[in-house]
Amino acid sequence: MAPIRDKYTIHSKAVVCQDVELKGDITIGSGRSIVHPKATIFAIAGPIVIGSGCIIEEGAIIVNRRKEVMRIGDDNLFEIGCRVESPTVGDFNTISTRARVHHTVRIGSYCVIGAGCLVVPTEDEFLDDYTVIYGPAAERRTWSGRGKVQEADLREKARRVSPRDASKIQPATAWRRVLASVSSIVSNVINGFRTADTIYMVSTKLA
Length: 207
Hints:
The chain is an alpha/beta fold and 207 residues long. The protein has a single domain, classed as Hexapeptide repeat proteins (UDP N-Acetylglucosamine Acyltransferase, domain 1). The protein is 23% helix and 29% strand. It has helices spanning 148-161, 173-206, and strands at 7-10, 15-16, 21-23, 25-28, 34-35, 40-43, 48-50, 55-56, 61-64, 70-72, 77-78, 83-84, 88-89, 94-95, 100-101, 105-107, 112-113, 118-119, 125-127, 131-134, 139-142. The protein has an eight-stranded mixed β-sheet with strand order 2-5-8-11-14-17-20-21, with no helix packed on it. Strands 3-6-9-12-15-18 form a six-stranded parallel β-sheet, with no helix packed on it. Helix 1 (148-161) runs antiparallel to helix 2. The longest helix has 34 residues, at 173-206. The termini are far apart. Mean pLDDT is 82; it is low at 163-178 and 198-207.
């Protein structure tokens, strides 16, 4: 196997912190994306292209194991310790803490992979828009989309908290705590709206 050649193209308004591990051909474009300290982005077999407004938290791992370009859309949230190998990721998705998504899965938009969920099918699969995967058994249901405007607003606030000048960023404990708090609020609000959807669905069936 030929050695991996590093090539980084990072938009001037994107924030890539110190202590981030990058390898291969990686593009972070359109600005407003944030890559936290200790995150890992490995373009092992093919390039990785990350869109605008994405938040990649500490310990998150993004890997491209295919020769095709791995395309990640806009406004995606990769929470602490998750691992994503999906060849394509749409827009406004949430990959929760310590979730893992295999390279056989292509993700649509407005999907949620719950905390600790493993999505590792042996054959290629596409997750439709608004798919929610949750629980230890990786159960699935469809989100109505209720609350997505509020979710987008909270993500924008999370980006505004972060420093703009990547060259000045240090892995400061206080800054990490602020971002973790904002991310926690975002997750809680999202889960609240989806819990309300579930209660409504159950009550409708019982009525």
